[in-house]
Write a structure and sequence with these properties.
567 residues; alpha/beta; 23% strand; binds magnesium ion; single chain; binds adenosine-5'-triphosphate; 29% helix; GMP Synthetase, Chain A, domain 3; 9-stranded mixed sheet; 5-stranded parallel sheet; Rossmann fold
Length: 567
């Protein structure tokens, strides 16, 4: 039996009070995510249940119970209070996926401060822009990242505390630097939780920067209601599950579903803090007997590229439910996972701004490979006409993906940019900036980001559809499709592809691929050109940055590249 039961029934009878009553939260109560994810779980008698299995670089393994998480987050909270951090201060977490990152996340929230997680692979420039924008007061980091902080701290007068979690006594601490040795500090048994309320700010997340300059998205503690219930119903987490979310907490998936969702449900999760390889991922699933796996298309495509033979070397029979987010999930990936794991990846669509899953394929519901699924119960989602902003009733017609505001995890503003925030709302709808169509059964089909959809001689072409067709070709590992200038049609389709190992590019292959996709695509959607490349430009969160390829084709400025993977 799945947690969601019948999707149709859930939709009919839905009310967010389902979530608040399970969380024993009543309007006007204090609500603190840090407390909910640790203290409350312990109060439910799960002190000794494992909250976190951790495997680090080089294979070091650790495990922590919910009581360990409670105590360690208390200790960090109390330490921050001691040095003078107060509610509302922005505290940046700039660490690899070490256990302290997870404890700090809850510790910061427990004292009412705002947690600002940033991906530790960022260089000093990217770090500077975000710390400056948020006027961050403290940063918690590791020694290995200290040089980046030291480089920029003189230009950051608001940054009063640089807290190092793995400081060795032999190293000299410089101005503003403080060591925090969690293992040596006396655990704080009781911490006074700051009385945060529904609208108290909680997390400040920066978007991926796929379409332009990253935006700081402000969330509040009330988001818990969405994150709790979507985790329960979409990811289907159950008491005995071992859950693996592959996202880094520097991105919203890594906090909404890599910390808040699973731990507010008291679920055991595991973290792999090492670089990607198909071997290490499969052996991690085997070793920890992962049951529920939440990942992203870029990773799935890399696993596909590594081939199917390697899968047979591992026992992956523990896997029960698979889900994906972050980019469109090509139908080929869904079919591949069904073939190799015996179950499909369930696509889910949402954004940093939405804070929680909005559209998804639910456990138990028919999966249509290539579709994002249907709106979460309680979410009114539609596609709007690009000119009138009226909902489109016609199945299959392309429009702007929009939601009726009002779900708990919706962002409250863009940090320092109220104007941009307001621009996201038109005629009572929140505009996502993405396009889709809806079929006659209510399934959403992703088309592309607003700016990526190609208009060739008046016909709209979905880059996703062309990319998916390309991906079905056995030689192609990844693809990105953009508009290229054309005298007659204004825009035509151009494809960039990377090839699987051992395949040589050349005119013969281009012709073969063209013939292959011709059977799948309409004539307007056919690429005029295929360019073979060694790699595609991606954000650090693994998303293809089509705008860079587009800019190159049009001879335009490439804009903000602070989140480019290989900068
Ligand atoms: P920026 O807003 O800075 O350009 P970003 O939009 O990539 O970056 P995120 O909030 O991390 O930042 O990503 C949300 C976006 O990712 C969505 O708006 C959508 O374009 C894409 N996305 C997420 N999930 C899916 C999915 N299942 N199918 C298609 N696209 C998806
Ligand atoms: Mg975005």
């Amino acid at each position: 039996m799945t947690n969601i039961g019948s999707y149709e029934e859930r939709i009919k009878n839905f009310d967010w009070s389902i979530s608040s009553s399970e969380l024993e939260y009543r309007e006007g109560d204090k609500i603190n995510i840090g407390w909910y994810c640790s203290d409350r779980i312990c109060k439910q008698g799960k002190n000794d249940k494992i909250a976190l299995y951790y495997k680090g670089f080089g294979g070091a393994e650790k495990q922590y119970t919910f009581n360990d998480v409670r105590l360690r987050s208390n200790t960090i909270g109390s330490f921050l209070r001691e040095i003078g951090v107060v509610n509302g201060d922005r505290i940046c977490l700039f660490m690899d996926r070490v256990p302290e990152l997870y404890f700090s996340f809850l510790g910061v929230l427990k004292i009412g401060a705002i947690v600002q997680p940033l991906f530790s692979a960022f260089g000093d420039e990217s770090l500077y822009v975000r710390l400056e924008n948020a006027q961050t007061r403290a940063i918690i980091t590791q020694k290995k990242h200290l040089s980046k902080v030291r480089k920029i701290k003189d230009e950051l007068p608001h940054l009063e505390f640089i807290i190092i979690i793995d400081h060795k006594e032999s190293h000299e601490l410089k101005d503003r630097e403080i060591a925090l040795d969690l293992e040596r500090r006396a655990p704080v048994e009781e911490l006074e939780i700051y009385p945060t309320e529904a609208e108290s700010p909680s997390v400040l997340h920066y978007t991926s920067g796929t379409t332009g300059q990253p935006k700081g998205v402000k969330h509040v503690h009330y988001s818990l209601l969405s994150q709790y219930l979507t985790t329960k119903w979409v990811l289907d987490l159950q008491e005995e599950d071992i859950y693996w979310c592959t996202a880094d907490p520097g991105w919203v998936t890594g906090t909404s579903y890599g910390i808040i969702g699973p731990w507010s449900l008291g679920i055991t999760q595991c973290v792999l803090d090492s670089g990607f390889s198909a071997q290490s991922w499969y052996s991690f699933i085997e070793e920890y007997k992962v049951t529920v796996w939440y990942s992203a298309p870029t990773a799935i495509r890399s696993l596909m590229k590594a081939g199917d033979d390697i899968i047979k070397k591992y026992d992956l029979s523990s896997l029960r439910h698979l889900a994906s987010v972050g980019e469109p999930l090509n139908s080929e990936a869904v079919i591949w996972s069904e073939k190799n794991f015996g179950k499909p990846f369930h696509d889910s669509f949402w954004q940093t701004e939405t804070g929680s899953i909005m559209i998804s394929n639910y456990p138990g519901m028919k999966v249509k490979p290539g579709s994002m699924g249907k709106p979460f119960p309680g979410i009114t989602g539609t596609v709007l006409d690009t000119k009138t902003f009226e909902p489109i009733r016609e199945p299959g017609k392309i429009g702007l993906i929009a939601f009726k505001p009002g779900w708990p995890a919706m962002m409250r503003t863009y940090w320092n940019n109220e104007e941009k925030y307001r621009e996201k709302f038109v005629s009572g709808w929140y505009l996502t900036g993405d396009k889709a169509s809806i079929d006659n059964e209510g399934y959403f089909w992703f088309i592309g980001r607003d700016d990526d959809v190609i208009n060739t001689g008046g016909h709209l072409v979905s880059p996703f559809e062309v990319e998916s067709a390309l991906l079905e070709h056995p030689s192609i590992a990844e693809s990105a499709v953009v508009a290229k200038p054309d005298d007659i049609n204004m825009e035509v389709v151009k494809a960039f592809v990377t090839l699987k190992p051992g395949v040589d590019p050349g005119p013969d292959l281009e012709l073969e691929i063209m013939n292959f996709i011709r059977k799948k695509l309409s004539s307007v959607a056919m690429p005029q050109e295929i360019e073979f490349v060694d790699q595609l430009p991606k954000t650090r969160s693994g998303k293809i940055m089509r705008r860079l390829l587009h800019a190159k084709e049009w001879g335009e400025e490439i804009g903000d590249i602070s989140t480019l993977e290989n900068d």
